[in-house]
Design brief:
This protein is α/β, with parallel strands linked by helices. It contains 14 helices and 21 strands. The strands form 4 sheets. Strands 1, 2, 3, 4, 5, 16, 19, 20 and 21 form a 9-stranded mixed sheet that branches. The model has no long low-confidence stretch (mean pLDDT about 100). Bound molecules: zinc ion (ZN) (2 copies). One zinc ion (ZN) binds next to loops.
């Protein structure tokens, strides 16, 4: 089947121009001047399907490099399955996710990878890849890191938080980094000083400070900056590339920028919640409502200016990609586990559906350029995680993962409006976006069009990733 997307403005990470996009089956085969007959035919008349993108942006499908579908956490699990979560992603213009396989202490890495393949296979609406969480750095997991590269799982997440669950000590981190430096893999780091945080949490609870607000107060920015610094220094010793996930403190990003300026392979990721939401307005909401926004790293104080500073770091390129850290939990029976004790609230926010829209609002508001929007949402995540060429770009030979985005459209976020994630609330209730995801193609198949969902569980395939294409 041939498809022509005509009369739109193709936006890439480096520029924008009017081009027609020709798709054959699952693959983009040509970019042409609008109306071009250079191929010897009038494509608008001969293509089997024609999508009119007049007045609209034509962008690569979004690549969300950080999601947690069905992730086990504290006796429950994230409320989106691979089926519901990837469907919601498609609604929002994301056509690839990279989800995290979890190895907890005492589990064998390759067993956990097999389990995640079982969970995702046949369920996904869009393509997906995996990162591997290494919760237990030992001989077996170090050996598995080499095997994972061959399996197309080329990045390994370590934790400096959650002692007794996922935390790796500095020696373990060093050994894993040496492994990545040797096999070409990427180290992803959850950078918070978990031992210090656990003491602050216990002291707060002992004082009767049990509301969700104290989740933020007990994870101060110093614990994030300190851990980020330590990770940067350990990476420097080993030569491993380091990607710091979900950075929310401006001081941590400043440390990442400093390492980058020194020529180190260090990268920072942030998420929409850290750009828009805050300790005061969200975690500090009355009663138990703040539980909706409990995630780690936590939302930061607006009075301290983190949000504006994070937008700045997107402009300067020190934020490499914006992902969601999509890890949804319902209020009922899940977030409610932490009534009377914020430490028992499952950590996570659901955003996989809204990332492209929320970042586009940054373009409308004059915070980032149109090209930077595509860069941090689509292109650089693809390069960072070894997907580029197939994903993250509109070019001949690439998978036909494409979003037609209407800058004259409008999106109202919230329950009963735009909300396809399996959650009983929206962390983004009331947000209004000056743009709209009109049409979404996943490998040439129209999965969303004109407000209708046309996708199918099982269309999405596992993507074996190569090594990072974004290293210096
Ligand atoms: Zn994390
Ligand atoms: Zn995460």
């Amino acid at each position: 089947m041939t498809t022509l997307i005509r009369n739109g403005t193709v936006v890439s990470a480096t520029g924008s121009s009017r081009q027609d996009v020709l798709i054959d089956g699952e693959t983009i085969v040509a970019l042409l001047a609008p109306g071009s007959t250079a191929l010897g035919v009038d494509l608008a008349a001969t293509a089997e399907r024609v999508i009119d993108a007049t007045g609209k942006y034509v962008i690569p499908g979004g690549v969300d490099g950080h999601t947690h579908m069905e992730m086990p956490f504290g006796g429950t699990k994230a409320s989106d399955t691979f089926e519901t979560g990837t469907r919601a992603a498609a609604w929002g213009g994301t056509t690839t996710i990279v989800d995290f396989v979890v190895q907890a202490q005492g589990q064998r890495v390759m067993d956990t990878l097999a389990a995640w393949h079982d969970k995702a296979a046949g369920q996904c609406a869009i393509d997906y890849g995996f990162h591997q969480i290494i919760g237990d750095v030992d001989e077996e997991s170090l050996k598995a890191m080499d095997a994972l590269i061959d399996e197309g799982v080329t990045s390994f997440k370590l934790f400096m938080a959650y002692p007794g669950v996922f935390l790796s000590d500095d020696g373990q981190i060093l050994r894993a980094m040496q492994g990545a430096a040797g096999n070409g893999g990427l180290i992803m780091m959850h950078a918070e000083n978990g031992s210090a945080i656990d003491v602050l949490v216990q002291q707060a609870l002992a004082r009767g400070e049990t509301a969700p607000y104290y989740h933020g107060v007990t994870r101060p920015w110093q614990t994030e900056q300190e851990a980020t610094h330590r990770a940067v220094m350990l990476a420097d010793i080993t030569g491993a590339p380091l990607y710091v996930v979900h950075v929310s403190a401006k001081q941590a990003l400043a440390r990442i920028a400093e390492a980058r300026n020194a020529g180190q392979n260090v990268f920072g990721e942030t998420c929409p919640q850290y750009l828009y939401l805050s300790l005061e307005e969200n975690l500090g909401a009355p009663g138990f409502e703040g539980a909706k926004w409990v995630c780690s790293t936590p939302l930061r104080s607006r009075a301290e200016g983190h949000q504006d500073e994070l937008w700045k770091f997107i402009r300067t390129g020190d934020v490499t990609s914006v992902s969601t850290d999509h890890c949804p939990f319902c209020m009922k029976d899940q977030k409610e586990m932490g009534l009377g004790n914020f430490a028992k609230i499952p950590n996570g926010i659901g955003s996989v559906e809204h990332r492209i829209d929320l970042l586009y609002q940054g373009v409308v508001d004059g915070r980032i350029s149109l090209e930077r929007w595509v860069d941090v949402c689509c292109t650089t995540p693809a390069r960072m995680f070894g997907l580029y060429g197939r994903k993250g770009v509109i070019a001949p030979g690439a998978d036909a993962d494409i979003v037609v985005y209407d800058p004259a459209g409008h999106t109202s976020i919230g329950l009963g409006k735009t909300h396809h994630m399996n959650m009983d609330y929206s962390a983004w209730e009331g947000y209004e976006i000056d743009g709209h995801v009109d049409t979404v193609l996943s490998r040439g198949r129209v999965v969303v069009d004109g407000g209708a969902y046309l996708g199918q569980a099982g269309h999405g395939r596992f993507v074996k990733r190569g090594l990072s294409q974004n290293l210096i």
